[in-house]
Automatic annotation (TrEMBL), chains A, B:
Limits of the Oxidoreductase molybdopterin-binding domain: 45-220
Moybdenum cofactor oxidoreductase dimerisation domain span: 249-361
GO-annotated molecular function: heme binding; molybdenum ion binding; molybdopterin cofactor binding; sulfite oxidase activity
Pfam family, one: Oxidored_molyb
InterPro entries in alphabetical order: Ig_E-set (IPR014756), MoCF_OxRdtse_dimer (IPR005066), Mopterin_OxRdtase_euk (IPR008335), OxRdtase_Mopterin-bd_dom (IPR000572), OxRdtase_Mopterin-bd_sf (IPR036374), OxRdtase_Mopterin_BS (IPR022407)
Keyword annotations of the record: Heme, Iron, Metal-binding, Molybdenum, Oxidoreductase
The name this protein goes by in its record: Sulfite oxidase
Bilayer-spanning residue ranges: none
Organism listed in the record: Kouleothrix aurantiaca
Amino acid sequence: MSDQASSKHANFIIRSQEPLNGGPPLPALAATAMTPNDLFFVRNHGSIPQIDPAVFRLEIGGMVQRPLTLALADLRGLPRASVAATLQCAGNRRDELSAVAPTPGELPWGAEAISSAVWEGVPLREILRAAGIDTGATHVAFTSSDDVERSGRHFGFGGSLPLAKALAPEVLLADTMNGAPLPAEHGFPLRVVAPGYIGARSVKWLQTITLQAEPSDNYFQAHAYKLFPTDITAQNVDWQGGMMLGEQSLTSVICDPATGAKLAAGPVLLRGYAYAGGERLVERVEVSADGGACWQQAELLGQPERWAWRLWQARIDVPPGRHTLAVRAWDSAAQTQPSEICQVWNFKGYMNNAWHRIAVEAVE
Amino acid sequence: MSDQASSKHANFIIRSQEPLNGGPPLPALAATAMTPNDLFFVRNHGSIPQIDPAVFRLEIGGMVQRPLTLALADLRGLPRASVAATLQCAGNRRDELSAVAPTPGELPWGAEAISSAVWEGVPLREILRAAGIDTGATHVAFTSSDDVERSGRHFGFGGSLPLAKALAPEVLLADTMNGAPLPAEHGFPLRVVAPGYIGARSVKWLQTITLQAEPSDNYFQAHAYKLFPTDITAQNVDWQGGMMLGEQSLTSVICDPATGAKLAAGPVLLRGYAYAGGERLVERVEVSADGGACWQQAELLGQPERWAWRLWQARIDVPPGRHTLAVRAWDSAAQTQPSEICQVWNFKGYMNNAWHRIAVEAVE
């Protein structure tokens, strides 16, 4: 697996080699509305399968009227669609949570476990219609052909979507990413893209689709990717409890300058991203030069896209000295972000959407 | 108009007589999942029209293929649906905002400008289908037959929904409320019920439906019910700016005990409501006896309903002394509420969803 990262840019930051996990430098993330494929973040829990497209078969079963086995050629006759969508790992910005209290055994993501691309493929609902949905089916489960190991057991990564979401037009079985075939790291030959949901539901190297009456019982749906209250720890957790993650929450990040930067005092250009989960849009982004006492509006770049982040920039006056710069966003449901990291701390380190703060020093 | 409140309960709290505005005492609000009609909050901007159902006509026009004029009898042949839905004024909990800085000319609502009912009527989309939607129509505007006066000009209250929402199955033209005909105060004979959106979009005494390419230009859509940043005031406001309110945000409130209550030290029963706007569900409610440093989970009562609030209760230990009790909720997008009132302050006093706090004194 030594050349797993071979399709990635020289600046790609690798957080772990096996499984391969990494993301782009933050300034690169804020530079383009759609992230180049060679910089798009990678979140894996197991191997990167090498799949021969000629022998690849997708299995659709469970509570369906006609179980299907489809080759890639069978998909070619189906309608296609594309969507500009942001994917984000539920563990994005975990490093800020881990600084408050440990998040044992979890990857210490900075704010780079998020990227955006234009995905194209067959809407999942075309496949579900072809298979025919049985009465009583309420969830659509996916498994990957990767190889994950947990406690000596080997299995494929999996997760599920509620049926209503699975039938929405934006959910694709994608085979291209920014106009190019899916790279191996991103799920070649076929992956789910579930816009608005945590990245873990956009299953890569898609192998099976199973309609069922309950959410997936795969480890990554039934056990991992659950949100626990702040007073729960690895020691006292009841894994049956906790909230199964689904829709993303509202977040925003300063990508440039970097925390710890030494700047010339005066007007400073801030750049970053803001992302509203679910079907919500980013309506406003605000930045602060004094840690959140006073705010000014940032400029939203580009046009709103239902399923994609919004890049932003702001010029803010920074006098000589040490300062905490902060950002927060507002979404189309008139919601904003929690202010303090400790308000959203959880021992799995998920869904940190507190105000993003960076420490800078301005010199004359 | 002296008997405007005649159908209301003796305990109904009247905030203004003309126009009639008021709501129930908070403990009554937390007592039943669906609010009795005689306690349901009332938010008016003008008169309460007295409409003869025999002469009532609903006009559907604008960008439609077949303008329609419908009598109530014409609606009787159409499919019907019901929805358990919470309505909330965007100004709910304004009193907490006004305590930070003035919200000039706005009604000083406590936390009672919210209620829930089972609504029944004709799905709006049935009417829209009957009229036929022209290409280019993207908003559905409503006007009321009430009489609002602003700056000497008289007009009917109005507002609009995006077409996609107007076509959703939960949006009704309701003629009953908790199984009874709509009371005059609540829009007899016909009103819009737009679950998940601010109450102002659920137009009462519905008179016209107009399909158009832009949101309503009615005062209450184009001018009022907009969310401005904290640094904007009545003096420096540009009314073209600000965010047009739509989906409700996540909120939660302690209804019982009341703020200022003197309690026996020891376990105290807290009761209240939590409401997630849009299509989101309330997933968790937490209460704190120390102003938000430590939290414990409340018990969610009843079953989740997509469009209705969730009542909750919690027993919390309160030692002798003065305390600030607090509540916050988490929704199905893994979002929680902002902690401080000042974080959400705006001069119109809308969408206060900061942690709800009450001051109590416990005695031995």
